[in-house]
Hints:
Its EC number is 5.1.1.3. This protein is an alpha/beta fold and 259 residues long.
Amino acid sequence: MTLGPVLVFDSGVGGLSVVAALRGRLPGAALAYVCDNAMLPYGLREDAWLVRRILAVCEAAVAASGCVALVVACNTASTLALDALRERLRIPVVGTVPAIKPAAAHSRSRHIGLLATSATVSRPYTQHLIETYAADCVVRRVAADALVREAERRLAGEPSDPGVIEAALAPLWEDPELDTVVLGCTHFPLLRDALAAAAPRAVAWVDSSDAIARRTAQVAAGVTLAAGPGPSLATAPDPALAAALARFGFAAPRPLVID
Ligand code: DGL
């Protein structure tokens, strides 16, 4: 029987926002991390290119890490490439999709916001989620790509820029009844306190990390997980990324080379 870690994949540091939930559900299991930070941000990339890139990165990282399951901790990648990944890889693949369903369940006013990348807010997959789970809600979709860099900067130890955060959130507040905001990009929970501080009133911020961890634990029940630390990999390793990964218990990233 093959033993291996669970591999967490994102374009950058966003996947780190699901690590605590994963460790909570899979105590002691080895987690590995891979990010395609050479090509960040994914949210502004063209779809066909992105599918090819995601397949290439995940295939290489699965081989390099020896993982037994893959968590695509990226809404932008999942809403586009989950089917292709499942077809290509021989291991279970858990995806991340915007938490429209829990947000709709939580909202009293039936006015919710979706804060995500440009790609995610405009995907048919997202439209389908809204029609399926929030058909009776007014959903305000806000593309907030600037917050991806903001989260990367924060994890690199740089101060947040309140002006960038306020400008990114501003379209949400045009709906005075909005009471719940979906953090539909895994980078955004890393800024949760700054987002809440910039909000003109209290709203609920809902993300997908618990759902991802729950689903990963179900999937992991059918595979044999290694214990202890797993490797980390990046397409552009650098000291700031190594420091961010270290804060989440990962070793310094090794370079992942993509042909
Ligand atoms: N963290 C990613 C997501 O969940 C994408 C960030 C990016 O644009 O690269 O959508």
